[in-house]
Amino acid sequence: LILLFLMAQSCFITCQLYEYHYVGENKSWSEAQQYCREKHTDLVTVSNMTDMKRLINESSGNMNEAWIGLKDQTGANRTWYWSLPGVKFNGNQTNWAPNAP
């Protein structure tokens, strides 16, 4: 998978107040988060579908998969959290597919 994270080193994209980069390295979600935290800030936090569409549209076009900072810490309860501390997930502000994120 391709990593998407804040403040990084490859394919530079500016999106509102943040800088996003796709990094072409195969990693698990945990490995991607560790990499991003060591090199920069964290995996990307997507506030709404407008931001998600902007990231997709401004990508290089050949990057169809990327890790974002959303994770399910509770398993069966499907309670989602952003990996960046202090940022809360609000599923009402998004347009996720059924049974997603």
From TrEMBL:
Keywords attached to this entry: Signal
Keyword Cytoplasm: no
Superkingdom as given in the UniProt entry: Eukaryota
Gene3D superfamilies assigned: Mannose-Binding Protein A, subunit A
Entry-linked InterPro entries: C-type_lectin-like, C-type_lectin-like/link_sf, CTDL_fold
Signal peptide location: 1-15
SUPFAM superfamilies, sorted: C-type lectin-like
UniProt keyword Signal present: yes
Stretches that traverse the bilayer: none
Domain C-type lectin residues, every copy: 20-101
PANTHER family assigned to the protein according to its UniProt record, in alphabetical order: C-TYPE LECTIN DOMAIN FAMILY 20 MEMBER A-RELATED (PTHR45784), C-TYPE LECTIN DOMAIN FAMILY 4 MEMBER K-LIKE-RELATED (PTHR45784:SF3)
Name of this protein: C-type lectin domain-containing protein
Natural source organism: Iconisemion striatum
Gene: Nfu_g_1_025223
